[in-house]
Amino acid sequence: MLWRDLKAWQVYGANTDVGKTIVSTILCRALQRRASPNGLLYLKPVSTGPQAEADDRHIRQYVPGINSKCISQFSRPLSPHLAAKLDGDSSIPTSDASIVAQIKKLLSQHSQAGGRYAILETAGGVLSPGPSGSVQADLYRPLRLPTLLIGDSKLGGISTTISAFESLHLRGYDLDSVILFDDPEWGNHGYLQEHFSKHGISTLALPMPPARRDDPNEDEAVLADYYRECSESTTVTNLIDLLQQKHFSRVSKLTSMPSQAEAVIWHPFRQHGIPHNIIAIDSAYGDYFQAYNPESDPALSISASSPTTGLTPLAALPPTKPLLTPLFDASASWWTQGLGHGNPEIALTAAHAAGRYGHVMFAHAVHEPALDLSYNLLSTLQNPRLNRIFFSDNGSTGMEVAVKMALRASCQRYGWNKNDHDNDGHTPVSILGLKGSYHGDTIGVMNCSEPSVFNEKVDWHQPWGHWLEPPSLLLRKGMWELSLPDEMARGGGTVQKFDSLGAIFDFDARRDDAARYEEHIKTTLDSLVRQQGRRFGALILEPLLMGAGGMIFVDPLFQRTLITVIRSNPELIGSRVNSANESGVVDGSTGGIEASTNSQDWSGLPVVADEVFTGLYRLGRASSSSFLSSSTDTLPSHQPQSQVQSSLPASLSTAIAPDISVHAKLLTAGLLPLALTTASEAIFQTFLSSSKTDALLHGHSYTAHPIGCMVANKALAEYRRMDTDGTWDGFKQSWSASSSAANTTTTRSSISAISSPSSESSSTSSPPLSGTISPATNTYSFWPLHFVTTLSHHPRLDGCFALGTVLVLKVAADSGGSGYTSTASSSLQSRLLTLLDNEGCGIHSRVLGDIIYFMTSLTTSPEQVERLSKTILQALDER
Amino acid sequence: MLWRDLKAWQVYGANTDVGKTIVSTILCRALQRRASPNGLLYLKPVSTGPQAEADDRHIRQYVPGINSKCISQFSRPLSPHLAAKLDGDSSIPTSDASIVAQIKKLLSQHSQAGGRYAILETAGGVLSPGPSGSVQADLYRPLRLPTLLIGDSKLGGISTTISAFESLHLRGYDLDSVILFDDPEWGNHGYLQEHFSKHGISTLALPMPPARRDDPNEDEAVLADYYRECSESTTVTNLIDLLQQKHFSRVSKLTSMPSQAEAVIWHPFRQHGIPHNIIAIDSAYGDYFQAYNPESDPALSISASSPTTGLTPLAALPPTKPLLTPLFDASASWWTQGLGHGNPEIALTAAHAAGRYGHVMFAHAVHEPALDLSYNLLSTLQNPRLNRIFFSDNGSTGMEVAVKMALRASCQRYGWNKNDHDNDGHTPVSILGLKGSYHGDTIGVMNCSEPSVFNEKVDWHQPWGHWLEPPSLLLRKGMWELSLPDEMARGGGTVQKFDSLGAIFDFDARRDDAARYEEHIKTTLDSLVRQQGRRFGALILEPLLMGAGGMIFVDPLFQRTLITVIRSNPELIGSRVNSANESGVVDGSTGGIEASTNSQDWSGLPVVADEVFTGLYRLGRASSSSFLSSSTDTLPSHQPQSQVQSSLPASLSTAIAPDISVHAKLLTAGLLPLALTTASEAIFQTFLSSSKTDALLHGHSYTAHPIGCMVANKALAEYRRMDTDGTWDGFKQSWSASSSAANTTTTRSSISAISSPSSESSSTSSPPLSGTISPATNTYSFWPLHFVTTLSHHPRLDGCFALGTVLVLKVAADSGGSGYTSTASSSLQSRLLTLLDNEGCGIHSRVLGDIIYFMTSLTTSPEQVERLSKTILQALDER
Fold it and tell me: Region Disordered: start and end of each range (chains A, B) (predicted)?
């Protein structure tokens, strides 16, 4: 919560009984002298013990006329979590959300009424439990008010004061000042002053309060004198000046960040030649950014005369509008978020790794977090082929490693030398992939994608491969439409319809489709390899969903067929082995090389699954490759080496399991970069020899940095817990509501050839559709089926779909009124930033051309999804 | 400290007066029942207050016959930091190092004597200051003993107990158990038990101790009863069992890590076909790993029958040898270390960023840590050309970005299209660089280096450039020898000698050399560009020192000349602009394109400085490009935009300042990956247009992750503080001892042509050399000149040098006795792991072929360098 004019501070204590209320009283008296009538609010959100002893009563007594409020008052003098239980009064707010909402409401009202100051006093120590049992520093964290820590002036108080600071600091609080009584016996003030000055925090000593007198009147009189003297002292006056100045600095810094960024930052993927609104993110919590959006700041229109300096004339501004808006992070911060922003457990885990190791060398060395992560990832993926882990820093480098692995394996098997160029004259070996793929921004993996607007201007980009156009899916007017590409449909796009997601994944029922795909793949490969002499070294796929290429839902049957065709027909790829001449004659006998007795060995081509975006539960399952498995595939007899006993519902059959897979993004719960490339033993053995130069010569400085590994271990443990303990059952049920009846009768609608995919004249109606997926298949979305179905009928959309946490909307070209598809999606994106829901929250989303997408973290609640759904529909309905 | 048989625990209190001594007494009684006579040690390292009230006295009273020790006893009942000051008794250890050394000694003696258990009891709370003023959790951190936290059972104790845990946890401690009294009034135990179970930590309740009796005898009796009952209770017995089990698990995990790693990890840059000793790093602190080295473990020879399981029969092992050896991290963990491992300030900074943000989206957004870092880096570098910051994840991706920037700029200026290939048929534009360069492991930047054993097996590596062989320097027998490459020396290597580093950097006195270099560069470029039709798009340099390519000390005058020749003669590069035909005719008139009125604009070629390894004080200066500046260069009139007022001694002239520079490694103090690519406004403007596809389409998911940015801000602030506050003056003085006399008389020795660089017959003797560098030039090393000079005379070395924190030794081919140079350096490397100094520390170093190098962090002390120097000399002297 932040306003230009209302300055609110939260008072925390290093321990109970350190003088929070005494200091709060002094501050309130001092502030009241500066405030207009009703300009100061004292708020004690939670109080325990008899009313007569309550802190707000004390404040009212010694700060006459103060506006004082308490939200949750419990009668027993216990910790609030016990007092709340014993009181059992349901009229008193006890949930974290309700207390925070009450505080927001009271502060907003105070701001509206022209309030300039507020003091919020907590109860007990910084980590004393609130009524729900959450520790206070977590309970109040969404507000992230600037904080005053009342230090402990007694023996031992140095330790408790610094520890309390550390607990606040690791939760992302800004500590404005430490205040404690100057007890000369223990001298804590001097030590703490020096300690906190290193953190740029001032530490202030107040005189010890008077000893308690037996005579109540005398006691009251000396206390009143003490308060008067203290609150009028230079020390306190200077403190208030300092606090005000910190407030103004924060506001000034926040509001000037967008223009300061313009001067110095070269943003990723941004055309700086086009003006763009830059959002300043003050902090984040859970799924929300606390963001300053210059476009919604009335101050900016006032100070429009100096738009580039960003320095706004603070005094003249309307004070009542909050500067920060919570924005749901609907791109999951570029697809990384797993356990929420500012998660204190993750922060503490990161700190532990930093404190135990920092970073330590990983060449010829090992440490516990990296070793644990290696075993944990393998047991999470349940891929029967994989047993080796290579560490790097991000999805792009992880894919570079995968490419180096795969190309070496195939070049070695097929006897290709990098200095023999194939017929395109550029490179001895290239990639087989899909149109619309994207594998990262480094040049090597850019070369794994087909030419597109994303790479055409990169001077060293050379498309090294062939990319098949895949059949893709969209939900339109309640039906799943499968569009076949021109190259497969022979004259005009052909559209098939399915009445459920389950029908799409019912591969056994789709044998005709599989046969058609197989024929197309074989014909294509024959043409490329035998007729054109192309050499392929790897099959690279983003299983099920191609992300950066435009959020394309690929028919899983097509990817499955591609893998099985190549594995079953290695001669389609490797026919040139041992053929020393360049005649391109097929040497069928060399297929024998493939006939390895090791069923884990790769065949045809090493299959690389780029699961950077799609894996680790982004689509609802640990491994997105598992979507290509059929329930009738033979499951592996050997599970991979694993320390954790686990039986995950969606298994990967050996037949379609990739030989190499790459994982990043969600791997570290959305905290920091780390990537893992996993490989089969057969791939690993390709690099074994007695010569160092045959090794995989790749290794970034921070390879397997402990902080990333330890956070990833924590993230995987949390993900697996949620996958198995029912956390997501509500989402799953939305997609399987009537599955008990329909489950055994999954049928495919008849194939209907339609002249154009965009024709929507074929009327299939009656939403909402009933799903046909059993929970066991784990094919579901965090976005309820009825909502997605409703969207599929929306006139502003050209189709949509949802998989796991991802919701994708294809915005109709003419719906923006401008004719430009990207403008239509962008205007929806802009609108969602300012269309606030009933809790005052907007949505921060990303667009890709005519696609706008929304993504939750793995901890987003059904209630949050419902609020998002309402807002999205409301924005779509506006015209 | 870790032994197989001796189990030592450290007892911390959540606050003072929570019952540490009572619990310690109970534990000691329980342990003594299991231990042999003298098998248990109670150690109170620091105690304050009268002897009669001392904790060790209490223990001796209630645990009869116990072996009890106190290291530092102060008489006043105050916090140790005050008590130590007031006592002023110099015979009592007060420094952190002396207390830790005493503990190590006592525990080692205890282990030698067959001790099985030890309890160390701290004083006050976890962050109460020790005698030196350091907080205890920092003071004892190098030991990293498993910890028991005594919780606070009073009101407010939930908060202080959890905060105390968090303070220990972020310092990398392992907490084995929380123990507190079961005070039913406040019920802290139940809450804490639930809280800590989430961290896998057991929380134990003990009965409240008896109330104090007035009669001392009665008091003693009831207390004795209490101790007896407690120590024999099932609760405590189970606790001891648990603690022992945790100990054995830790030992078992540690010793089996190397073999477990063999089964699953694919190590970077490792040939897994060659057996190699894998070191298990338990933790790290300051400059040291705490490492388990299987080669030095006697248990492994006993259990040699099952080398692959790694499970060693613990019971049968010699118990007295410590399992962990402190190893100086002399590769600075692949050149990353800046402020020491396990630095609690850095850990807390990382935690704050994680708690405030996690990671937040950076596309079209900005946050404070990223914005601050952008300004801080620019003001640290003091490069007058740079004003834009692009974020990525590591040196390799940072260089990929730099290459994309530079190539676009030159292709745009010279009108080159990526689809026009130059005469080598591969690529329209290539790199001009130096032989021996290395810029990272992703394929794009691998293509920026010349063919070598490091990249020849990478199937997609295509060397796209020309690499000049640079003159390089080595200190041999007290003289700096400059070796000219064959391509410049015309028939036989020519060697020049300099009597000081200062003479090398006295560019004004080396005008003849500069002229010779200039002629060579011009001739080469003319041949490449005009005669062969090559197109160059960037000049890429690692200023002064080429790292991964073999630690080559490049003549700075050569790099300086290369930059100035290209900038002054753009027609050497860009003559083909506007020539639509392929005739290769020089079109001299197009030089006019270069004549920009903007002096910051690039000329000839964008100059890219790869400072990933060499920058940010690795070589003693903020920017390694500054080594190429001359003191007589005109300094820029405009300093870059900066928030910090600073006047750094080594400035970068506009004439040689790079147009793009890349920074990583030390950037985050050695904690986690982050890279910054900085660029000039002219480079930035190349990408401006109204089309999104012209933008720099690069951006990793965790771009500008706040945790990296905030840690980097902290690191830069610390580095700049040390650079200016005299921290490194001792090092600087070693290189300028007699500079006041010699400074103005820097002379160059006469050029002597010697038939072979390896000939060492020319006798120049009389070490130690006196340096001739004034501190102001900041050309110095952390390794003292006299030590480096001594090394230069060593018969096992073929030369050496030191720059900043880096010491490089070229090991003579025949000194290893095997004839293989790499074996000679590797055997020295192996020896240093087990050759322990007087504090029991070894050295963990890295080799590159016949080069072995040693690197300090930026906080390594002169005393540590001296210990390292002694060990290195001792190892060299062994034969």
Answer: 748-770
